[in-house]
Amino acid sequence: MSFMSQYDLELVWSALMDKLTRSTSEKNLSMYFRQMKPVSIEGQTLVAEVFSSSLKASIDQKFLPIMIGILTEITQDEDFSMEIRVAEPGPGDLNIPAETYTTEPLFADPAEAASAKKKKTEPPFVSGLNPEKRFDNFVVGNSNRFATAAAQAVVKRPGFTYNPLFIFGNSGLGKTHLMHATGNEILARHAGSKVLYVTCEAFTNEMIDCIKNGTIMNFQQKYRTIDCLIIDDIQFLENKIRTQEEFFHTFNALREANKQIIISSDRPPQYLDKLEERLRSRFANGLTIDIQPPDLETRIAILRKKAESEKVKVPNSIIQAVAQNIVGNIRNMEGALTRLLAYASLLNEPINDDMLDEVLKEFGNAAHSNVTMDKIIDYVCAQYEVKKEDILGKKRTKTIALPRQIAMYLCRTMTDTSLPRIGEQFGGRDHTTVMHAMDRIQTLCGKDKFFAQKLKQYEQEIRNGQ
Q: Distance between CA atoms of 328 and 69, rounded to whole angstroms?
């Protein structure tokens, strides 16, 4: 039964669509989100209609938890939800009530729960989670909004919503913080659950030790009976055939028991080409979502949050200078601020321009602060008098090939953009094409001093905005 709500439908819907527009592709907007029509807000539930049950099913499966996460952020109401309805229900459409979430452990059946009660005398399970990495101190911006919403959706229904959850992105963008935050929140909501965070390197080393000591069954028992496995930097599994085999069976055991799996990598599954295909396909079978480098506003917010955690007042001008000069790596940016605070404390002086210049020079990103892929591509096109659509297209003529390879090389060396993303920018090419371009340009620099000098000139002019 409908009842009045304190929320304004038009304002909430407008805010939701605004965040979706800034966070997803035009294809998703046109195929899914713009097909929805807001109808009402019933209590704490936004109701929207679509024209077919198949569209409703697609949106429910792919996007509803993410939209609910965004709505809870908009309304500042953890219990705010969303429901998709079919405008003219057809025969066979089911009206499934919303799930209710409890703080029960994630045991598969009552027998497991009973067994768990008998184990109260056992040593406490060590999760490996850092309790300081939580959702409330994770700064959300356009670069990580979808990944955060997906993680929060997993927390509500671990093992059933987005399993596995695969998060990828360059180093230092917050993947690890988000994974720890997810694990900590699962523990808070589902008391008694076994949640384990482990790096891929630690997983491999532990397995090797167990094989050496003849205790591999203990290893299998540990990893195949937990409720949520969070494994960081899965790319380190490449070329490790025996470890891949063990992880494959662990993954299957957990997945079949509806236990949650959360994985991070520096690349999406399809680009982990030294992993077995059966692993890549299983990783891609859940939700794969990326974290992008944060924009300037998000970087400023991160630094302010860092200063607050240190209980230190830092002038806005210093915060902005660090945020503008260190891009693409949150870890480096926070490290620069920590170094500034240490200098000021040791010298017993307020932070000044000399300290700032020294730290920015040390962290080495100042020169690249305004460099983007678009700027590099436009510059190379102007230098070689080629059209942008040609350099990004499929042409393979000699007049296009060298400028394209130079542009790829500069995009990789002057920005923090990953090989797969550079390949996508240049006409949807594979990352191996970018690697070939890197090798060719480096070879040319080694053979031709004039070419190497010209490349340095290009870099300088791009940095100076010429």
A: 25
- In sequence order, the β-bridge partners of residue 37 are 49
Question: Under the phi-then-psi rule, with left for phi > 0, alpha for psi from -120 to 50, and beta for the rest, what region is 49?
Answer: beta
CA angle 452, 453, 457 (to 5 degrees): 115
pTM score over 0.85: no
Report the distance separating Cα 179 and Cα 191, nearest Å: 18
85: tokens are 């309805």
Rounded to whole angstroms, the Cα distance separating 416 from 97 reads 45
Query: Residue 435: how many CA atoms within 13 Å on its side-chain side?
Result: 5
How far is Cα 412 from Cα 3, in angstroms, rounded to an integer?
55
Strand order in the sheet with 228-232: 195-199, 228-232, 260-265, 165-168, 287-290
For helices 373-384 and 449-463, the axis angle rounded to 10 degrees is 130
Reported residue count of the chain is 466
Q: What is the pLDDT of residues 368-388, one digit of tens each?
A: 456 788 899 999 999 999 999
Q: In what order do the strands lie in the sheet with 81-86?
A: 37-42, 45-50, 81-86
User: What mean pLDDT do residues 237-260 have?
Assistant: 91
- Crossing angle (nearest 10°) for helices 449-463 and 431-447: 120
Cβ(43)–Cβ(3) below 8 Å: yes
Could you tell me if 134 and 123 are in contact, meaning their C-beta atoms sit under 8 angstroms apart? no
Note the pLDDT tens digit of each residue in 84-110. 999 865 444 444 333 333 334 444 444
**248/276 Cα distance (integer angstroms):** 9
Say what the alpha-carbon torsion angle 371, 145, 425, 449 is, to the nearest 10 degrees.
30
Task: Let me know: does 135 contact 187? Beta carbons within 8 Å.
Answer: no
What's the CA dihedral at 347, 348, 353, 354 to 10 degrees?
A: -10
